[in-house]
Predict the structure.
Amino acid sequence: MSVPLHPVLASVTARIALRSRVERTAYLDRIEAARASGPGRGKLSCANWAHAFAGSPTEDKGRALAQAPNLGVVTAYNDMLSAHQPLETYPELIRQAARAVGATAQVAGGVPAMCDGVTQGRPGMELSLFSREVIAMATAVALSHDAFDGALCLGVCDKIVPGLMIGALQFGHLPIVFAPAGPMPSGISNADKARVRGLYAEGKASRDDLLKAEMGAYHGPGTCTFYGTANSNQMLMELMGVHLPGAAFVNPGTPLREALTKAAAQRVIALRDGSNDYAPLGRVIDEKAIVNGVVGLMATGGSTNHTLHIVAMARAAGISIDWTDFDDLSRVVPLLARVYPNGSGDVNQFQAAGGLSFLTRELLDAGLLHEDVLTVAGPGLRRYQDEPFLDGGKLVWKPGVTESLDRDMLRPVSDPFDKEGGLRLLTGNLGRAMIKSSAVKPQHRLVEAPAIVFDDQDDFLAAFKAGQLDRDFVAVVRFQGPQANGMPELHSLSPALGVLQDRGRHVALVTDGRMSGASGKTPAAIHLSPEAADGGLLAKLRTGDVIRLDAEAGVLEAKVDASELAARQPAIDPKASGHGYGRELFSHMRRAAGPAESGAGVFFR
């Protein structure tokens, strides 16, 4: 039975639709025109078609001659990313699944997939955010062959899934399903990992101790098990209706994972134009799907990176959202999950407690999700409160649990961890920023202290190691925005800030950079816009200026007289060259980047 929608969800959705009406209409007109031109395989010449299948097995060539449906696969496989290593075997599984229903499947192209876990704190991290744009373009190149009735996107981690989505939406007349690999099995506890990191930051643990702990945590194929951007991606794809139900958190290398991958391939073919179930991606991703994604982010305390990525993905579909929309939804969506770094358990424990099927049912029953949406599983989001199982080797879906099996991990709407969601908008004379409040205990959500200004994260770490930061302060780390250096994550600051907070110091971070999906337990005002390199007041702050960060009231303010701030000359980025590690090749993207609140991208400003 349908439940009345919460009035704030209804209001925010209507506001988004009104704001987006011109661009959304133009987008839908474009994909309808592409659909009207017919399947790509019907437009290709004999020479085109021969080229497309020259390397295929004889049986696939025969189907191609018979104009059988053809599925394009866009893969982010590499074996440096543990989450993407399982994708190596997916193409053959997909080809087999397609042949079983009289169709063909081809790897249309690959996209780059860098590991932020490897590049954290390194120059390569300055390429990370803009790799999303490269992935979007690579996806478009792959699908531009126009030889496909639908597509399957294989990707899991940080910028990869948003990039695949942005690129795929340019072919929004096609049905497109996303197929993940699932999380690696649990390793050492997150508490032990955090403890060793803190000891190492203080010089009380050796590098060997740290390496042993890290390898105990990140130990096998699959997604890292903390609830960062990669696992937030999978939650989003599920609640936005582009996964098969329950696909997000099934471990790799299992029979169920293999069955879901094969089923995803066959589902794309069943959704093709001309079928009774036609479901093009550009219709699946609409205003309601985007709001459902934001609600899921709030209810699970998901990655702050998605205050950029959801905006960018929405704009690729002609939909305009902003941080006020996020904030309004956060105030009415309760926090139902605590997954590390917001809690002690990992995503496998979340799944065991009831996972997304439980969470989806709870939110639907409270009127906190749009139920009347189109998904790749069919009309209606209620399908996503079921879980996949193997019954005699056959993939089936059964109702998920109706009560949480671990209330320290997952709770019902009637007894949430917090009455509000995990993210909050901060505003004040410095601009607009986001904070992951769910990761911060209430007693630490207000900090008013003198600023210590840094123009580089390495300078902060050097000051910490030299014992210069054992006091109350607000760390201002600027020239970290998209136009300055590509907006790298500053995750390496978390252990040091956490150590200082544990010593009883009142500390916070203010930056125009990112803090990542693994934002720590100290308050961090991130994505500050306008950034220092784009005329933001952040460039005028000086060490000693008092900063007030109040996550509860949504305030970020420099307690400096407005006339004095206006008279100050802005600082100049001391490292503006961007040379080495391929950064030269991304200079045009830094120049073209839009503000963080617009997604920090170069396509849809």
The chain has 23 helices and 16 strands. The CA atoms of residues 136 and 419 lie 36 Å apart. The mean pLDDT is 92.
